[in-house]
Amino acid sequence: MIVSVKKSVPKGEITAPASKSYTHRAVLIASLGKNEVNLSHPLLSADTKSTMEACRLFGANVEEKTDPETGETIIVVKGFDGKPKKPEKTIDVGNSGTTLRLMTALAGVVDGEVVLTGDESIQKRPNTPLLKTLNEMGAEAYSINGNDCAPLVVKGKIKPGSVSIDGGMSSQFISALLLSCPLLEGDSKISIYNDLKSKPYVDITLEVAKKAGVNIEEYFKRELIQEGIEEDYRVSEVHVLIYSIPGNQKYDLGVYNHGNYAIPGDFSSASYLLTAATLIPGAEIMMNGLFPSAQGDSAIVEILEKAGADISWDKEKGIIRVSNKDGRRLKGIVWDAGKTPDLVPTLAVLGAFSDGEMKITNAEHVRFKETDRLKAMTEELTKIGAVIEETADGLIISGEKSKGQMKGAAVHGWDDHRIVMSLFIAGMMIGDMTIDTIESVKISYPTFFEEMKKIGAVFEK
């Protein structure tokens, strides 16, 4: 499908969609327990439904029901008490990388062979560190096509022990192991030598696991590493991130708040509307449901503040107000995206319409998302006249040089929800823009277009 976007001025009040990251983890962690759990305010998107179906295949009872008091849809989970069964068919995760990684590690706890696959995009996303670690832990884990991408086969069972894993590609591998290791019969230790990218997502995993009564200790250790041979060597000190995980633990999210767990609002999805309201002259938005949490993308508030936006956050009420009544242009900043990879497409658009230069660094892992987002944003923003340079690990966008020369064009959404929604903001700024593959928004924000229409966006699908 294609959307044609006109110049628009967003105004009004809107509630942030639920967090995709929290919904994934809450569904799985509730499934790992025994008692019934009600998940309120969940995100019911293509990705989270993939996790729901995968948990059903492992033996959990996962249902969508209507809350009799609020009329809202909730997810009710009755888990398999830490004893996942062998799925009777292949697990198809669709487009969800999170589902694939979480379920691949859980498959290592199952006695028997588990096969996992996904769509065309998933079959291009590598899982090398996770497969390597599962094999080191005693499972037989491999890619059918021999490229470390889905379809994957896992033949358990993994055994407790000490392993190291590369944290530079995706935090999802770490989260997957952290959730499965407490089920093992002995203690485990996971050491991460390279910088752990997207660590806030691991923090979300630990937060929800702790609410389910699971103990995982995180600490840093200094180690001396010798490189080279004979006289030609050097010794360097590194800080190793270590997770210590006791075995034989029981998950029970039912003990938290009498079995009622509310999913927080999603800052990744909120970033598009907040950014649009800071860029577009005359815009004024109030967003509800955005309380402090472990989400790294809550940094969008800090980023917009640094860029000079008129923005305020009432953390107690979970309300963010942002406006551009005086038609101000923001200023470019330097931003390390190591912990906030999902904000990169949004920040690229922010930079294109700001003064000065926006420099996004430490974002090489963004190349391994639904698509290579550094390449995608460079190509599409160039089409509308933005001056943008793709580097090995980031982007440099000159809003100063782009000023006055950007105009609408037909751009490609790369079948990537975050690319589509970011380009939609650009379309609201300059008008006369068409974006294809817009159905991809169902991955994380299925009501995106309905919500945009409510606040005054002008477009046709």
Automatic annotation (TrEMBL):
Binding site for phosphoenolpyruvate: 20, 97, 125, 172, 373, 418
Gene3D superfamilies given in the database record: Enolpyruvate transferase domain
GO molecular function: 3-phosphoshikimate 1-carboxyvinyltransferase activity
GO CC terms of this entry: cytoplasm
Class of enzymatic activity (EC top level): transferase
Domain Enolpyruvate transferase: 11-452
InterPro entries given in the database record: Enolpyruvate_Tfrase_dom (IPR001986), Enolpyruvate_Tfrase_sf (IPR036968), EPSP_synthase (IPR006264), EPSP_synthase_CS (IPR023193), RNA3'P_cycl/enolpyr_Trfase_a/b (IPR013792)
Compartments (UniProt record): Cytoplasm
GO biological process terms, semicolon-separated: amino acid biosynthetic process; aromatic amino acid family biosynthetic process; chorismate biosynthetic process
Catalytic activity field: 3-phosphoshikimate + phosphoenolpyruvate = 5-O-(1-carboxyvinyl)-3-phosphoshikimate + phosphate
List of catalytic residues: 342 (proton acceptor)
Database matches in CDD domains: EPSP_synthase
Pathway(s) per entry: Metabolic intermediate biosynthesis; chorismate biosynthesis; chorismate from D-erythrose 4-phosphate and phosphoenolpyruvate: step 6/7
Pfam families referenced in this protein's UniProt entry, alphabetically: EPSP_synthase
Function: Catalyzes the transfer of the enolpyruvyl moiety of phosphoenolpyruvate (PEP) to the 5-hydroxyl of shikimate-3-phosphate (S3P) to produce enolpyruvyl shikimate-3-phosphate and inorganic phosphate.
Xref: NCBIfam families: aroA
UniProt protein name: 3-phosphoshikimate 1-carboxyvinyltransferase
